[in-house]
Amino acid sequence: MTDISEAELDEVWNEFHAVVNMNARELGDWLRTRFADESTEQLPDQAGTQNGRRVLEILGKRRTDLTSDDIRVMRKVVDTVTAERGVDMEPTAGEPHWRHRLMSLGHDPLKPLASDHGGADRNR
Length: 124
Fold this sequence. Notes:
The protein is globular, with a radius of gyration of 14 Å. It has 5 helices and no strands. With 124 residues, the protein is an all-alpha fold.
């Protein structure tokens, strides 16, 4: 697994799942749609950015199955979304390019944060 404490892992896990407010199906659909064009369509497992594909992989993992690289990616996503959104994480449209870039990391600025949904427990 990883060489971080349980408390650090809990923090990264919770922050990641709070800012990644698209589920795996939504993100997978977005990556396939976003990176397809009139002349070509990538293979489903190769669609999107490398970071977007990694987020999709992480969404399919249990907390206990995370690798050190997964945690690095999770921290990067949290840092990127937080830097782009600031402290105000209220749903906002913004410029299409900005929104699409964040959606490629699993964060749709038009949706509330995942923690606002009161959804299922993600600590599988």
